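User: Can you help me understand a structure? I only have the sequence.
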Amino acid sequence: MNDLLSPETMESATARVERALTSQGYTKEVAGDDFVGVVACIASADLDNRCALLSGAPGCGKTMAMTLAHPEAHVLNMVCDSEVDEIMADVIAFATRHPLVVLDDVGAEKTRNSYGITSEPFVTIMENWYVKGKPCRFLITTNLTGQMMKGRYKNDRLISRILSTCALFPMKGKDHRGKESCATKPARPISDGVAKLLREFKDMVRHDGKENVYPKRFIAGESLCFDSERDREDLRDGVMEIMGGHSGCLVDDSNVPSIQETLAKLFAGKMKG
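Assistant: Let's start by predicting it. Here is the structure, written out as tokens:
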């Protein structure tokens, strides 16, 4: 935190962040002892125009806190290859469109391998961003501890740049998803497999727009991954909640053959040959 800032300024920023979080269900009852530290981290970063980094166990509320504090931020999930490739290729162009970016789930991204040469997308993003004059502000969430990050990326310069540009707070809480009162969260815990697919679908909607996705087709295809009827129901409910009443692509996909029908036809054709 900047020592030159008056207590009133910090107090105002803290109050603003706290209001943004609690109004949407991220309360002290949900976050527990982490609440004060999370608010202070985000408020301090806002005041100094710095980045913020929240680390902690899955489900402890990192992403929820960042996105509720800054709903205007563009959420870039690090497992979404297309956007990761986009910001790696041209961080200036990306920052022009998105001056505030949530780099969500750092550490979950895949290591790139090109002709035997490996590279880490997060390292590339941060180095390009730093060299280009830090053209946007990052709000970073990760399940990695400091030691885990050092072990994963093996890059002391990366760690140094994170320390110099980010307000940091390591969250100690466990999975609070069952406590969240935010209306966009499911009423019951969902399996990791369903949660992963819903994140992928949300990324697809964010990237392509609701009018260009096929929710029915997605549900029909991905439901095959699950033996549990509960998982299939959670997937269907989650997809429709993300769509928020939008029917999806204007092209009617109700008559599109199911994956089972398509495979059956292909199999029949091979048998005839």
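Now, to help you interpret it: The beta strands are 51-55, 74-77, 100-106, 112-114, 117-119, 137-142, 166-170. Residues 1-5, 178-187 have pLDDT under 50 and may be disordered. Let me know which part you'd like to focus on.
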